[in-house]
Design a protein that fits this description.
- This protein has 207 residues and is mostly helical.
- The protein is 71% helix and 0% strand.
- Helix 1 (4-22) packs parallel to helix 7.
- The protein is elongated and about 50 Å long.
């Protein structure tokens, strides 16, 4: 069986790298990598690449949590430990592992949510100047904002169980990073930084 810590690292890296691309730290990184990848010189392209990486990581980790839930329901054991970190104890708890309205596993809800966000980020990446692109970014911001109280609910479940699902936490972090990403994309529109065809001095003048 694959080491769960290695899998966890596989989710951490794209989320962290994606976040770096969305922040000022990505400016220096883009400049250093622009020789091999000229597209990374543009702030908007870096930002959308970062968002796509984070959304993909969120989707994959949601699939992983659903797989763990199914595995536990079959009597399997994936990452149970005697420490506070035990995804088996959290995802195997029938009282908390489904949403209280539809009875769907939280992992499936995460898959659906990140799948929709993936559609938004990929669509905007392909056609950033389309008339609908800015509205799509707003929809993504609203979706991830709705995820905040849901995350608070899930964290309250973990507090009640006195256990932490490390993979669930990665999905929560991915949602929060996406919320920042959608908010930042809106700010780029407001500051005139969205159109990467503008020369740098024009961007500075419009900021």
């Amino acid at each position: 069986m694959v080491d769960q810590n290695l899998l966890l690292l596989g989710y951490v890296l794209p989320i962290v790298f994606g976040l770096v691309l969305m922040t000022k730290a990505g400016d220096g990184l883009g400049a250093s990598l622009s020789g091999r990848q000229p597209l990374l010189e543009h702030a908007r392209r870096r930002h959308m690449l970062g968002m796509n990486l984070v959304v993909l990581a969120g989707f994959v980790v949601s699939v992983h949590t659903l797989w763990i839930s199914n595995k536990i329901s079959e009597g399997g054991n994936v990452c149970s430990t005697a420490t506070v970190f035990s995804c088996d104890d959290v995802l195997g708890n029938a009282q908390y592992n489904t949403d209280p309205v539809f009875g769907l596993p939280w992992g499936m809800i995460g898959m659906l949510a990140f799948g929709a966000l993936m559609f938004i980020t990929n669509s905007v990446s392909k056609e950033p100047d389309a008339l609908w692109a800015e509205n799509y970014l707003k929809y993504g911001k609203y979706m991830t904002a709705v995820g905040v109280p849901i995350i608070a609910l899930l964290v309250s479940y973990e507090i009640a169980m006195e256990k932490i699902c490390q993979f669930c936490t990665m999905a929560h972090i991915a949602n929060m990073v996406c919320l920042f990403g959608f908010w930042r994309a809106g700010k780029m529109h407001e500051e005139g930084l969205w159109n990467d065809e503008l020369p740098e001095d024009a961007k500075e003048a419009s900021a």
